[in-house]
Structures are given as C-alpha cells and as structure tokens.
Amino acid sequence: MPKRARILESKTIFRGRAVELKVDRVVEPGGVETTREVVCHPGSVVIVPHLPDGRLILVRQYRHAVRESLWELVAGGMERGETPRQSARRELVEETGYHARILKPLLEFYPSPGILSEKMHLFEAWDLTPSKGQPDADERIETGFFTVNEIMKMIKSHEIRDGKTLVGILLLFGAPPVST
What we know:
The chain is an alpha+beta fold. The chain has 2 domains: 35 residues, no CATH class; 130 residues, Nucleoside Triphosphate Pyrophosphohydrolase (Alpha-Beta Complex). The strands form 3 sheets. Strands 7-4-9-8 form a 4-stranded mixed β-sheet, sandwiched between helices. It contains 3 helices and 10 strands, in the order βββββββαβββαα. 18% of the residues lie in helices and 43% in strands.
C-alpha cells in the first residue's frame, strides 16, 4: 500500500497572515478517493523554561478561537527562514524577556493532524537570564512563575487545558495523581 495520498486537485481557498486553507481531492493510501480540507501552517515552537529555583514560566493570553485567556507554555509560530531553535530563542525573549543559554530539543508533534499541517517543536530552556520582553504589537501577555506541583494542580483542576502545554508538562513530569 502506498504511504502517501495522490493529490488529484488542490485549491487554495484562503491565504492569511498565519495560515492557508486548501481543499484537496485525493486518493488516500488504500484507494479511498475523498476531499480533505487542510489548514496549512509553517510550524511552531513550544518552550518549557526552567528557572534556577526550579519553577517554570508559563504565560497567559487571550485566545479568541476559544474565547478565553489560557495559561500556556511559551510558544509561537516559526518565521520564514528560521530554524526551530532560532524561533524558540526569539519566542522566549518576546514572551518572557528571558534568554536561554541552553535549549534542549525534546520532540516534534502534530497538534491536530486531521485538519492541520502544523508541526510543533518542543524544547526545554535552561540557564535563563532576564532581559526585556518584546511581545508582538497584538499580544497582551501575563507571565507567571510556578512550581511543577502548582502546575500539576492547575492541570487537575482544568485551569490548564492547552494541548501543547499538556504535552510538554506531562512528557517531562508525568501525569498528576488522580484523586479517588
């Protein structure tokens, strides 16, 4: 069986600043002919910033798609020509004002592969030094400093529900204990 679909026709129906929406008519592996809507995204980075005292940095910002402000790991889109490491360094400074001497890649994952081409690159950031944050003009970011235990409680109480944050925290620290 072939590993890739055969694209019969592809139409871009929307091109925005951050994403493109395509409608593809394809023959998928196994022979199924169908139409798929695909949100094309250039990729992004997610960073788990470790402070010297053991706390982690999270950011909270309004997310219009879900109409809520969410606590999240530091993250952002990759800009044209950037490597994931360059993007991670830039996003960390922009959102928190911290520089990292050490950036350790952890894994790459697809947050919603049924409709979205975005690949997320997860990093740990160590040996942080403070400077001045440089958020984008349209960002209003609150920075928080939390112990792993506090973050686990926030996950259990559904205060943290962002997928990339759950992936990063649970990969590094495991699932919070379930109360009975």
